[in-house]
Amino acid sequence: MGRTNITRPTEFILLGLSSRPEDQKPLFVMFLPIYLITMIGNLLIILTIRSDTRLQTPMYFFLSVLSFVDICYVTVIIPKMLANFLSKTKTISYGECLTQMYFFIAFGNTDSYLLAAMAIDRYVAICNPLHYITIMNHRRCVLLLVLSFCIPHLHSLLHILLTNQLVFCASNVIHHFFCDDQPVLKLSCSSHFVKEITVMTEGLAIIMTPFSCIIISYLRIFITVLKIPSAAGKYKAFSTCGSHLTVVTLFYGSISYVYFKPQSNYTVKDRIATVVYTILTPMLNPFIYSLRNKDMKQGLMKLMHRVKGQ
After folding, report:
1. Cα–chain center distance at 240
2. Which of 18, 25, 149, 160 has its CA 20 to 30 A from that of 129?
3. Residue pair 246/292 in contact by the 8 Å Cβ criterion
């Protein structure tokens, strides 16, 4: 088929994780429980934190918001993916594709900023415990929350506006399971110069800001913990950061593998790696935070007993 320029295609075709017909139903059976577990797990985290007065602290406040964002994040991607597993056409309209891309970028970056806010909270709690209540007051928590939502959504809006200016070719097949930025960009015939410059400047700044906050916070935490004389004290300080560090490693590790490489090298392995931070990390977050956290485990037990009592 000739590559006739199309300013705005009416629809795209999502190839998904596999194009083989015999793989579609097994993939549906695998990802449906993952979606349900993610929804239930993150809802339990939110309900537990809301119902237990001992968990009304900045750390758990940000954790509850992170769980809410994770629910939104997977809902942007998985339902459409599940529908395509059972569909022969696997199409997504142009408008729906840009909408999915917008919320994927926005919620993904919101996750990153919330992880940074949680790292700052741990830094203050460990390095400046006497002034923790004063520094991490309600006003500052709300400010961090507003920044965590506003900056990613403005960043995402800019990317969508630039994508909407591109001219697309006759091929409308996206080699991915959702409308990610790089696979969609591959279908464009027009110059990517403006978008590439934006990604290398504004995009890099937006991504590196929360990551830098996390690195600096944990370097300061590490230096402070090393000064604690007792081994028990060191363990107690590090134990409050264990869950957060695990989630940060999963999230940034998979993102780095996928996006910090040339666009032309975007392969099937990258699609699989994308599953880790788009689907598996939101599912694992509730388990990581509840199983490694004594207060969360006690809160969950209280919630279960309250539900049974009713």
Report:
1. 22
2. 149
3. yes
Q: Is residue 275 within 8 Å of residue 23, measured between CB atoms?
A: no
Place of tokens 């037990």: 301
Alpha-helical (H) ranges within the chain are: 21-51, 58-85, 94-127, 132-135, 138-164, 181-185, 193-198, 204-226, 231-239, 242-259, 268-275, 281-291, 294-309
Report d(CA 217, CA 125) in Å as an integer. Answer: 11
Length of the chain: 310
Per-residue pLDDT at 268: 63
Segment 213-228, tens digit of pLDDT: 999 999 999 999 888 8
Other beta carbons within 10 angstroms of residue 185's beta carbon come to 17
Structure-derived torsion over alpha carbons of residues 112, 116, 117, 121, reported in degrees to the nearest 10: 150
Q: What is the pTM of this model?
A: 0.90
Whole-angstrom Cα distance, residue 304 to residue 310? 10
Q: 29 is written with which tokens?
A: 């059976």
What six digits make up the tokens of 233? 């004290």
Q: What are phi and psi of 122, to 5 degrees?
A: -65, -35
At 108, the amino acid letter reads G
**Which residues partner with 91 through β-bridges?**
13
pLDDT in tens, 233-247: 777 777 778 888 888
Eight-class DSSP state of 228: -
pLDDT for 213 equals 95
H/E stretch holding 13 reads strand 11-14
Longest CA span, the chain:
71
Pairing of strands 11-14, 91-93: antiparallel
User: Under CATH, which architecture does the 22-309 domain have?
Assistant: Up-down Bundle (1.20)
Exposed/middle/buried for 195, CB within 10 Å: 0-12, 13-18, 19+?
buried
Judge whether 46 and 68 are in contact, CB under 8 Å.
yes
The Cα 253–Cα 32 span in angstroms is 25
Helices 58-85 and 138-164, axial angle in degrees (round to 10):
30
